[in-house]
Structure formats: structure tokens, C-alpha cells
Amino acid sequence: MLRRLMLAALIATPACAAPVQQAAPNVPEKTPAFAGQTRAEAVVAKTQLKVSEIATGLNKPWGVALLDKNRFLVSEKAAGRLTIVGADGSKTPVTGTPATDTRAQGGMLGVANPGDGWIYWSYAELREGGNGTAVARGHLVGSEMRDVAVIFHQMPSLDSVQHFGGRLVFPKDGSLIITLGDRSILPGRVQSQQLDSLIGKIVRVNRDGTIPKNNPFVNAAGVRPEIWSYGNRNVQAAALDAQGRLWEVEHGPQGGDELNQIQMGRDYGWPTISYGEEYSGKPINDNASQAPGMEQPQYYWDPVIGPSGMIFHSGKGAPEFKGNIFIGGLRVASLVRLVMNGDKVVGEQRLLTERKERIRDVIEGPGGEIYLLTDAVDGKLLKVTPAR
């Protein structure tokens, strides 16, 4: 323990830069691959924030999408349903969606309204051999989902109640990016870097579930053609930057949450490399954090923040926030703000800490307002705006 504390004190940070106040790292013997890869300088926004509660009483809400200026669509994970939430806080359950496996981390997950006439959602799907992440789409007519089609099934099925991933991202090229998880159990973990499996991957499909012809492995024998990236652990936060590039924040084990700029066909290292350790405190594999041919995170956290949901802010209504990343923090019960200089994190801030609420999803409204979901049995939909 003394050795670990001494190592923690020696972790390099830029001169005269004090990081966000946090606990000592779980794995201080693992050093960053480059300066600024972790514990960036703590910053304080000049923009003061106002928080308004739009709705309460949501059952473990997981994802939120705007339907129009007066309505939201929220996935209630534990209830296994989609719910229309009005600006007045009213809640109307949506009918017509497939059954979900609501055990533990399963249930209704990501939800999106990309403006093409369809509503898309991800969920934990029970099936022969266990379960897995699935994605469906349908037409929302009143409070009924019609013309429902399941367009994606994560395979193979595994009997696990954890690490489903589930965020949905819609590039301008008309495709759909789906983030997945390694299912937590060892039989899933070991498949994260295997290209004949969709476990521990980010995948890209067309919006009807067919395979884009320009996917990186579409013509490779014995490889799943949906794969966009691999070696991912459990991705519950993903967004496009102003250039249309995909970024994600994924859960590490004990230590080692990662911010990655995802490039097609690349290996992001899990479980061969990690900046974390097993929850038991034992090393993962040979304790490596770098390896040839495997990508380094742009930034990592140790101890973890528990990331879920993210945006790149447009700067509307708050120019100071333009290009900043906002991430939902479950473990740290806060909204995590990253200030970027190009692709490098140069500042970090923890916002809304006084509320002591786990943040599960983050989206931006048309005027730059930020909408948040809190992760609780009595979950909330919050609106965050600059205080005037």
C-alpha cells in the first residue's frame, strides 16, 4: 500500500496544473503513454448553470431523445419500456415494442430520433442460449409503435446480465453505429478481440440493418462484416464531433475508463491492455497498458467516473462550451466536462456535484440547452441552461 501511495504521488501532471480533486489511482504503477493522457488540469467554467426538473418518477431511465419542442422519448431501463415525456412532466408509456430482459444491466437502453421518420432503440433481448443487445426501429403513431422491425442482434448469445453497451449514433452518411459490450463474463471478455464475434465491439450497419459496402471487414473471410472497431469493453457513451468523427467513452474495470477517438478497423486493446485492474485488485492478463497494433485512449480516468452518455457541445447559448465534451458520470455523480484543444484534453471539470445524482444520459437541445437523465428508480429528466 505504501508503494502504491508513493507511486500515486509521482504520477506526472503538467507543471503548475492541479487535476480535479479525486482519490488516488487504483493502479498508480501504470504510467500514461503521453503527457496529459490522464488527470488534466482542473478548470472552472465562467458560465453559471441553472437546473430545472422536467419530469420525475422515471424507472431507471437510460436514454432520451427529442421528439419535438414539447416532447421527449425516454427509455425506462428497469421497466423495459419507452415513455413519452411532455414538457409539463406528463408520462405516457409507448405500446408495441418487443419484450426486454430487464435483469440487472439489461432492459430498455438507447433511444434515438434521427429525423428520418423512424424511432430506433436498443434493448437486452432474451433468446435461445441466453441474451444479447438488439436494435429495433418503428414508426411512432400517437403512443403506439408500429411497423416494428428488429434490425440488429449482437451475436453470439451469452447468459449474462451485464455489459450490453447500447448507444446509437447516426452519421450523416445514413448509417447507424451501435456500441456494444463484452458482456462482463470471461467467455465474453475473451471474444472482444476476436473478429468472428460481435462481443466487445462497435458495429456499423445501414439503418435497415443491412451491411454498408465500405465497412472495414466487409470482404474478409471469417470476420463479422458489421464490425467497425474491436477490443472495446462496455461502451455506454458515444458521439460525433464537429468533423463527423466518432468518439466514445467506455467503462474500464477498476480504473481505466477511456475516451477514444474511434477509427474504423482499429483494435482498442481490451482485454490485452488496460489502465485498470480486476475488481479483486489483481492485474489483468500481464498488467500491460500498451501493446503494438493496439490504440491508446486519448484520455483515461483512474479512479473511474462511470461514463454514460456524451455530447460535443455546439456552443449555442454558451460560447465557452463550444467543442467541449460533456459526459454523464455515474460513479462520480456529476456531469463531467472536458475542454479540448484539437484532439487533446486540456482541462476537466465536475459539474452539478452538489446534486449527488448519477447521470445516465446527456443530449443537447436545439438552443444549446443540455438535457440529462438521472440514474435512479425515481429518475429525473433535467434541463440545464446558463443562469441569466
Number of strands: 24
* Biggest beta sheet attributes: 4 strands, antiparallel
Instruction: Report the structural category.
Output: mainly beta
Give the overall average pLDDT.
95
Name the CATH class. Answer: Mainly Beta
Q: Please count the helical segments.
A: 2
Please explain how this structure is put together.
This protein has helices at residues 2-10, 186-189, and strands spanning 49-58, 61-68, 71-76, 81-86, 91-93, 108-112, 119-127, 130-141, 144-153, 168-169, 175-179, 201-206, 227-230, 235-240, 246-250, 257-261, 299-301, 307-312, 325-329, 334-341, 344-351, 359-364, 370-374, 379-386. The chain is mainly β and 388 residues long. It has a single domain, classed as 6 Propeller (Neuraminidase). Strands 1-24-23-22 form a four-stranded antiparallel β-sheet, with no helix packed on it. Strands 2-3-4-5 form a four-stranded antiparallel β-sheet, with no helix packed on it. Strand 6 (108-112) and strand 7 form a beta hairpin. It is globular and about 55 Å long. It starts with a helix and ends with a strand. Residues 1-16 have low confidence and may be disordered.
